[in-house]
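Re: that backbone. Tokens:
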């Protein structure tokens, strides 16, 4: 119980993390997910499953029910799936492959907007994720979050009058963000093509991207059309 209280009131608390991110009030903002958006989550997770006598069956876009014991072919119970997910983050957050073009496109976008990484991963792995981002030239503020991302997105997006963009692979996050921060432009992106084929565009998203160059072009086009140009 005390650990729970510490989580809520300590360095990991969402309010504490958000208070440390400074947002410029008239600069466009990009809030981006990490797993399956900046890092090749599924590629590494499949390797981790194989190393632990399990496999992903590629039936649908979800982990629970789709991870099988290699020997029996039976779906693992949800607590075992969670254990494998936690050990994956513990062992591989620092070393996950980066998604093609993500660093270069973020560098380009950072010339005209501020960028925050909003990642649902266990709080103890936040430093490893920050280091991995730095390794790949993506030294942007990183917030570790649990559950819905809507509160964090609403808080961050409320601090700028300029356009705000949100990128995530999960349709659930798009729906929850749309419910309380509908002005945020929502981009649905699943970097793993095989995983992406299992799911259509998220209903609550404005755009489904196939790769980072498409994301970059979409955002730049939106900014060109929606931000005032300074007179020459
Ligand atoms: Mg993700």
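Recovered sequence:
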């Amino acid at each position: 119980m005390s650990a729970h209280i510490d989580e809520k009131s300590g360095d990991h608390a969402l309010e504490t993390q958000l208070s440390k991110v400074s947002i410029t009030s008239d600069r466009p903002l990009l809030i981006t997910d990490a797993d399956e958006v900046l890092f090749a989550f599924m590629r590494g997770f499949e390797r981790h499953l194989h190393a632990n006598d399990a496999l992903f069956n590629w039936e649908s876009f979800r982990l629970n029910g789709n991870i099988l014991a290699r020997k029996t072919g039976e779906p693992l119970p949800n607590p075992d799936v969670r254990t494998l997910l936690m050990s994956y983050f513990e062992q591989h957050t620092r070393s996950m492959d980066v998604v093609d073009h993500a660093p270069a496109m973020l560098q380009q976008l950072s010339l005209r907007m501020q960028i925050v990484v909003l990642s649902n991963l266990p709080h103890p792995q936040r430093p490893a994720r920050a280091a991995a981002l730095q390794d790949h030239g993506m030294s942007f503020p990183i917030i570790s979050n649990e559950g819905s991302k809507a509160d964090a997105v609403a808080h961050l997006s409320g601090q700028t009058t300029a356009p705000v963009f949100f990128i995530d692979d999960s349709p659930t996050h798009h729906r929850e963000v749309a419910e309380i921060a509908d002005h945020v432009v929502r981009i649905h992106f699943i970097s793993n093509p095989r995983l992406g084929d299992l799911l259509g565009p998220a209903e609550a998203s404005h755009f489904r991207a196939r790769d980072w160059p498409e994301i970059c072009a979409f955002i730049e086009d939106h900014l060109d059309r929606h931000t005032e140009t300074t007179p020459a």
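The chain has two domains: 2-40+97-226, 42-94. The domain at 2-40+97-226 is CATH 3.40.50.1000 (Rossmann fold).
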